[in-house]
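Fold it.
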Amino acid sequence: MEFLCLHRDRPGSLALREELTERHWSYMDRYAKEMIARGPTLSDDGAPTGSVHILDLPSPAAARAFAFDEPNHQAGVYRDVFLRRWRNALGRTMWDFPGGRTGGDRYLVIGLGAGPAADLAVPPDRDELIAYGPLLSDDGTFWLGTAALLRAPDPRAARAVLTQDRYADIEVHNWQFGGRPS
């Protein structure tokens, strides 16, 4: 079962986040085999605003344990957690993205569903998609929205990956490839 976890930073928590960097990476190292994608969300000036992790885990309980046992969450860096079951419509990880780790602007787009399921098919320009798939209920039977990581020229173009009138809300966040620096 695949899950998308977005931890959103609490205002004023940057110093604590930086203090806990090694603990965060060590925790994530334990999940290296389960990772589909990871990386920080960023403000327009490049400061971290949150952390995205997409993982393949055995159950919703395991996903909740991952999200809430994370050291930054435990210490109060994060103000909240968005955790949803997700389906990997591309069938690959971010490390398989043909565009590589650098070059171009990257975004996290989350569409919170309203009504019947939308955007279940992978969009035609899949070469710009890093990760893409529906957000689902814990049991996988109900569509709750869609989430994508993608390369796009700007936030407006990133938002356009989703059918605008099929969502109650669409969030667009600056995002970059994450992981322990080499």
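The mean pLDDT is 95.
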